[in-house]
Amino acid sequence: MTASKRAQPQTNQPAPPPRRSDATRAAILAAARERFAADGYERATIRAIAKDARIDPSMVMRYFGTKEGLFATAVALDLRLPDLGPVPRDDIGRMLVSHFLDLWEENEELTAVLRVGATNQAGAERMQGVFREQLLPVAAQVCPDPEQVPTRAALCAAQLLGLALTRYVLRLPPAVALHPSEIVAWLAPTVQRYLTAPSCSD
After folding, report:
1. Where do the H-state alpha helices sit in 10-135?
2. Rounded to whole angstroms, how far apart are CA atoms 158 and 45?
3. At what angle do helices 149-164 and 180-196 cross, to 10 degrees?
4. Rounded to an integer, what distance in angstroms lies between the CA atom of residue 173 and that of residue 49?
5. Which CB contacts under 8 angstroms, 24+ apart, belong to 113-119?
6. Could you tell me the end-to-end alpha-carbon distance of the chain, in angstroms, rounded to an integer?
7. What is the SS3 assignment for 162?
């Protein structure tokens, strides 16, 4: 073997490339999802999430601005809405209100998302995405006028999110005191009307 061959540079151990911003962002989101799931929204801290992601806490703030913004981006929100196609038409309002009540009662994440959505732009955008991708298709299944689907779905959201805000976030005593069956009795006819009533004439 010649000296020139022995002098050739080694190429089997290249220097690691610098960490890209998308990789850092992904690491933060993965750590945040685990931390929010384990500790809940209130107890999870930016410092703990940064430690899990093995980065400085300032990097979390750089990418997401606030804890609220991080939560809104990290947490998936699946409303698991039922297929209304086979549901008897007169039962649609009752089924939707009962479904939302079951979700809110068992899932604190939804309450946190609602709180964030009311105070943070990223949270608001997440809620708007849920409206477009999950609620609109369900409303389209039963609405008698396709052009009114967005309006009718928005009215349903106003009723259901208004209930969630007063019962689970603001915790107004009269709203908290209502039994779920009472809530269904009050709201189901209104939601039913929003979704299935004939189009209003001018």
Report:
1. 21-43, 46-53, 57-64, 67-74, 92-106, 108-119, 121-130
2. 31
3. 170
4. 35
5. 113/71, 113/72, 113/75, 113/77, 114/161, 114/164, 114/165, 114/168, 114/169, 115/41, 115/169, 116/68, 116/71, 116/72, 117/72, 118/165, 118/169, 119/68
6. 94
7. helix
pLDDT over 70, % of the chain = 89
Q: Looking at residues 4-15, what average pLDDT do you find? A: 50
Helix (H, G, I), strand (E, B) or coil at 175: helix
Question: Residue 122 pLDDT > 90, yes or no?
Answer: no
What's the predicted TM-score (pTM) here?
0.73
Strand (E) or helix (H) holding 157: helix 149-164
CA–CA separation, 12 and 27 (whole Å): 27
Angle at 82 between CA 30 and CA 78, to 5 degrees: 10
Q: What does the block give as tokens for 80?
A: 């698991």
Q: Which of 26, 74, 31, 24 is nearest to 52 (CA)?
A: 31
pLDDT of 129-138, one tens digit each? 889 999 999 9
pLDDT digits (tens, 9 = 90+) for 11-42: 455 545 545 688 999 999 999 988 887 887 88
Asked if residues 130 and 79 have their Cβ atoms less than 8 Å apart, the reply is yes
CA atoms lying within 13 Å on the CB side of residue 126: 25
pLDDT at site 4: 45
